[in-house]
Design goal:
Blueprint: E1 6-7, E2 13-14, H1 19-32, H2 40-44, H3 50-61, H4 72-85, H5 89-95, H6 101-129, H7 152-164, H8 172-175, E3 210-211, E4 217-218, H9 220-224, H10 242-252
Antiparallel strand pairs: 1-2, 3-4
This protein binds a DNA duplex (21 and 21 nucleotides) through α3 and α6.
GO cellular component, one term: nucleus
Keywords: DNA-binding, Nucleus, Repeat
InterPro entries: Homeodomain-like_sf, Myb_dom, Myb_TF_plants, SANT/Myb
DNA sequence: AAGTACTCCAACCGCGACGGA
DNA sequence: TTCCGTCGCGGTTGGAGTACT
C-alpha cells in the first residue's frame, strides 16, 4: 500500500522507503539530530530530498510512535479536538502522544468524518421529531398532524428555502428540475388529516433519504409530511414559527451522503 | 478464477510562515 | 525592507490490498 520506489531526474529517490533507508535515517538522527533537513540526506548517505526524510521521520521513525488501530479513547479525543480546532492536525497530534498529524488526518478522513456526520444527522432527526405541533413520521405512515400555514406566501417562503439551499443547487442540470410551486397544491378548507403522496415534479428532495436512529428511512415524504405538503392539501391558518423555519433551513442543507 | 470497484494510508505537493543575510 | 532558503502544515494522490461481482 505504498508508492513504488523510483528516481526523479535529479537522481532523488521517491516512493516507498526500504528497511535499509529507514535504518540509515534513524541511525543518523540518533547520533547527529536533525538540525538541517536539507543537508541531512547527503550526510546520512540517502538519495532522498530533505522533505521526504523529515516526513519519514515525523510520521514513522520517531521514537515511541504507535502503530496500529486507534483506540476508542483516541478517537474521542480526535473528534473533540476537531470540533474545537477544525483541521489543525499538527495541534491535535500534540494531544495524542505517538500519533502523527498525517495519521490523525488519514484516520479522520477514512473513519471518523462520516461517523460524526451520521451521528449529527441522527441527533437533528431526534430534535426534529420532538417538534410540536409537527410530528415527523416514518416512511409509509400517512397519519400526520395537520400544519398551520397561513398563506400561499408562507408556503412560497418554505419552498424557496428548501429549493434555494438544495445540495444540487450548484448543479444546473438538477436544480433546473425543481419545479414545485404553490399552484401545485390546493388550500384545504376542512380539518381532514392529510394523506401524503409524492408531489408531482422533480424535486431535489425526492432523492433525499435519511435513516433515523431506529434505522427507519426518512424520505422526502417524511420531510414534507410535518408541513402537510401533499398533493391534495397544504395550507392552513396560522403563521410558520421561527423554530420551524430554522429546522427547514437545517433540513434543506443536509447533504446527500447518506 | 478473473475482472472491477472500493478502501486505506504512506508519500507527495504547494504554499505560507519564519528567520537570517 | 527585501530576498532567499528552510521548515512545517494541510490537501491531495498513488497504488497495494481487499471486497465484491
Amino acid at each position: 500500500m505504498v508508492r513504488a520506489p523510483c528516481f526523479d531526474k535529479n537522481g532523488i529517490k521517491r516512493g516507498a522507503w526500504s528497511k535499509e533507508e529507514d535504518n540509515k535515517l534513524r541511525a543518523y538522527i540518533q547520533i547527529y539530530g536533525h538540525s538541517n533537513w536539507r543537508e541531512l540526506p547527503k550526510l546520512a548517505g540517502l538519495s532522498r530530498c530533505g522533505k521526504s526524510c523529515r516526513l519519514r521521520w515525523m510520521n514513522y521513525l520517531r521514537p515511541n510512535m504507535k502503530r496500529g488501530n486507534f483506540t476508542k479513547e483516541e478517537e474521542d479525543v480526535i473528534v473533540g479536538l476537531h470540533e474545537k480546532l477544525g483541521n489543525k492536525w499538527s495541534t491535535m497530534a500534540t494531544q495524542l502522544p505517538g500519533r502523527s498529524d498525517n495519521e490523525i488526518k488519514n484516520h479522520w478522513h477514512t473513519h471518523l468524518k462520516n461517523q460524526v456526520r451520521k451521528d449529527q444527522t441522527v441527533l437533528k432527526i431526534e430534535q426534529f421529531e420532538t417538534l410540536e405541533p409537527f410530528k415527523a413520521t416514518p416512511r409509509g405512515c400517512q397519519q400526520v398532524k395537520k400544519p398551520n400555514l397561513k398563506t400561499p406566501q408562507e408556503v412560497e417562503i418554505l419552498l424557496a428555502v428548501l429549493t434555494s439551499e438544495s445540495p444540487s443547487s450548484s448543479s444546473t442540470s438538477e436544480s433546473s428540475q425543481c419545479s414545485l410551486s404553490v399552484s401545485d397544491y390546493e388550500v384545504p378548507c376542512d380539518d381532514a388529516t392529510p394523506q401524503f403522496s409524492e408531489p408531482a415534479g422533480n424535486l431535489w428532495f425526492d432523492q433525499l433519504f435519511l435513516p433515523d436512529n431506529n434505522g427507519v428511512v426518512l424520505s422526502s415524504e417524511t420531510m414534507f409530511s410535518p408541513f402537510g405538503l401533499t398533493d391534495d392539501n397544504l395550507i392552513s391558518k396560522t403563521s410558520f414559527p421561527d423554530h420551524i423555519m430554522d429546522d427547514v433551513h437545517l433540513w434543506s442543507t443536509i447533504d446527500l451522503y447518506l
